[in-house]
Amino acid sequence: MTSDPLPGRRHTMRVLAASGVALVARTASAQRETALPACVLTPAQTEGPFFVDERLERADIRSDPTDGSIRQGVPLLLALRIVAVTGRDCQPARDAIVDVWHCDAAGIYSDADGMGLRTRGSKFLRGYQVSDASGEVRFTTIYPGAYRGRAVHVHFKVRTNTGARRDEFTSQLYFDDALTDRVHVAAPYAASIRQRTHNVQDGLFRMNGRALILDARPAAEGYASAFDVGLRAA
Fold it and tell me: Does residue 128 belong to any structural domain of this protein?
């Protein structure tokens, strides 16, 4: 296998074989084991209009559980490590509920009714995981497409319980424009090319998006990326 998901790679658009997923997972895991957490507060960003509390616990969010269909696109393994930051120190945040949601290769969100979308009832590219003892969650998904007015991004929400108190943090993750240029020239991203907004054209990205760019690296049939989410300790 190669690690180049560029045009001419017909199998790039297929679902990862089990061995492929395992290879991506091992790559991301190895990167995490050798890296110390970044004890830096992560900038918050708006939830946006398409969050739905689906209560859908799963690691692979590519499928739609309502009909079994799978969203096509370049595979992406996303590992998030949740840490509670106190001064210059931080500790893993265990048992945090972490939701992830984003659009498909054509720029379409599931379970939406409005803003030109009629996908109510579908649940593709949505799900949550509960952080482990190291504060980590892992999702298998696809590289997002684009829609007018927004740079390519992934939404996430972290919910933690501290005694009787429940805290919620929401933000978004972005991609390097040069990488998106390479990914979006291949099918099934054709619609995304026509409606693409670059990072510097996105008002939300210009606020603090540079601190939210994923370091996505080639792995197996797609990409793997790890990101530390620093939350202010209660």
Answer: yes
Q: Is residue 118 part of a domain?
A: yes
Does 41 fall in a domain? yes
Residue 234 in contact with residue 91, Cβ under 8 Å? no
- The dihedral formed by the CA atoms of 21, 24, 27 and 32, expressed in degrees to the nearest 10: -90
Task: Report the CATH number that the domain containing residue 92 is assigned in CATH.
Answer: 2.60.130.10
Which segment of 86-90, 95-99, 156-160 scores lowest on mean pLDDT?
Answer: 86-90
Residue with tokens 């969203």: 71
pTM for the model stands at: 0.85
Indicate whether 14 pLDDT > 70: no
8 A C-beta contact, residue 69 and residue 78 = no
Mean pLDDT of 151-167: 86
Q: What is the pLDDT of residue 3?
A: 38
